[in-house]
């Protein structure tokens, strides 16, 4: 039986300290350290009764030197240089049998490289995606593990104990080797970006096209949270839109500058999608929308120069709800197609049913839909396409007409809906046996003699323009 490692955690920022308390709460002893020792002292002081199982150290090196072997050290430091330098330091201090766990949002290409580097030194490396924000880290996140099965066996009891539970089952699993866990977390975030963008697009139409107040729209989201749209993001949207700014008495959303931040996971999803020749158009639209949002002054100038106008729309509440459901299904479908492509490229053998299961609780995109998605992956799914699974094909047939009405009304009246529109175009493209790339092929042949396949057989044909 694999011996359970002694646990250490480095990095006591918001997420690190929440995860540390979660580990302690579950009865495990824990060593901790932080770049600045003051933070460690503060953490110990605030840990209350939980401090009994806590050993603090002045630095990462001190912790590595003083922990009994076998050691498993969880890094909760920002992606990039802080992770890189912590790993370099640990490689010189740890011994075979010890494990380094990067639990941040790391680009999976870095995780693959680091796995080779660390394991080349005789140590074990785990790239672990953790979703759920501070609340999740403290009380139960969804955890996506990448590494060897032996590495997983060494930490499994702890990870399953601290993870969120769905029907009593831990929302954590070993998903594949090296970068698999971090990539699945990255795609989770890509879907998160798309879902957030689609929600905000519908908010925009209701607000500026139908004159509804944030509180009225918030009440709609609150009521949707009990049906097919039930999800964490719909729930918090309902709460956010009904909140009031204590300083001004205005709706809280109205005092927030409309410039969205992004740390990189949405962009990484997209970069990998493009690299693998996949369409993640709804995620692309969401990433682009955040980029445009950061150009606040350009948009202020643009409204004046281009006479931007938004006119009224008249859509039913059901149309909005159905449109969001259809768009959300499509965003998930794009995410799973990308996971499938990466799984093949990197030989990960990802289990899509299992991934949807561990996303059912704890993570940011948790939703009622994920239970149906896992059932679909365990059932009949023609060609591995989520949108072809009977339950989803039926749902799309029922809800895409509403998505079409919402996108059409938005477009006609000047309300930008990039993510919803690209979701719709994706499904329209996928449901058309003969598309229009015959013309692209003709153009390519015309200007570059690239050749094309004929419908009656054979490749390398040229058009009459070359006769
Ligand atoms: C999660 C979140 C978390 C983080 C995002 C935010 O799953 O818990 O996705 O990882 O809040 O990285 O990302 P942006 O700052 O890029 O929006």
Structure characterization notes:
The chain is α/β, with parallel strands linked by helices. The chain folds into 3 domains: 6-178, NAD(P)-binding Rossmann-like Domain (Rossmann fold); 186-430, N-(1-d-carboxylethyl)-l-norvaline Dehydrogenase, domain 2 (Orthogonal Bundle); 437-466, Up-down Bundle (Single alpha-helices involved in coiled-coils or other helix-helix interfaces). The chain is built from 19 helices and 10 strands. The chain has helices at 14-25, 37-46, 60-66, 81-93, 108-120, 133-139, 149-162, 180-208, 214-224, 232-242, 265-275, 281-294, 296-305, 317-346, 352-358, 368-378, 390-412, 418-430, 437-448; strands spanning 6-10, 30-33, 54-56, 71-75, 99-102, 124-131, 142-146, 165-166, 169-170, 172-176. Strands 3-2-1-4-5-6-7-10 form an 8-stranded mixed beta sheet, with helices on both faces. Strands 8-9 form a two-stranded antiparallel sheet. β5 (99-102), α5 and β6 (124-131) form a beta-alpha-beta unit. α14 packs across α17. It is globular. It starts with 5 loop residues before the first strand and ends in a 19-residue tail after the last helix. The relative contact order is 0.09. The mean pLDDT is 96. The protein binds 6-phosphogluconic acid. 6-phosphogluconic acid is lined by residues 105, 131-133, 189, 192, 261-263, 265-266, 363-364.
